[in-house]
């Protein structure tokens, strides 16, 4: 059974699909048995594609993308090994809908995996910004990937 990771932001059109496709790139390169997807805490963009600025930032950096936005549902907790929030608001929302302490423990902030993140672990929402804001969000996502991949590799090792 594959290890399952999901990324969660607000509307699932900017930060979480960005993180999804960066991790997909790495797990495909390594051939890891991991399924990755994303969703949002809100459903107002459900059915939409990723923001065109997200897609452009991903493509400029050499990543693929294909995406349909959806809302994270409370019944999904059992389907994931790791649920990664992009900011503190998402973390609180996810933990408040978790059915139990074990599920709450699987919810983490992405920038917890960035050793240079400092005290502010939020990936700022680039939605109301421009190209530089999307590029900064992508840089923050990429900075967290090495340690996130380490954690995934460790979880995939036989006990």
TrEMBL record:
Gene3D superfamilies: 3.40.50.2300
InterPro entries in the record: LMW_PTPase (IPR050438), Ptyr_pPase (IPR023485), Ptyr_pPase_sf (IPR036196), Tyr_phospatase_low_mol_wt (IPR017867)
Enzyme's top EC category: hydrolase
Keyword set, alphabetical order: Hydrolase, Protein phosphatase
Active-site residue list: 9, 15, 125
GO molecular function, one term: protein tyrosine phosphatase activity
Positions of the Phosphotyrosine protein phosphatase I domain: 3-151
EC number(s) from the headed UniProt entry: 3.1.3.48
Pfam families: LMWPc
CDD domains: LMWPTP
PANTHER family the UniProt entry points to: LOW MOLECULAR WEIGHT PHOSPHOTYROSINE PROTEIN PHOSPHATASE (PTHR11717:SF7), LOW MOLECULAR WEIGHT PROTEIN TYROSINE PHOSPHATASE (PTHR11717)
Family note: Belongs to the low molecular weight phosphotyrosine protein phosphatase family.
Protein name in UniProt: protein-tyrosine-phosphatase
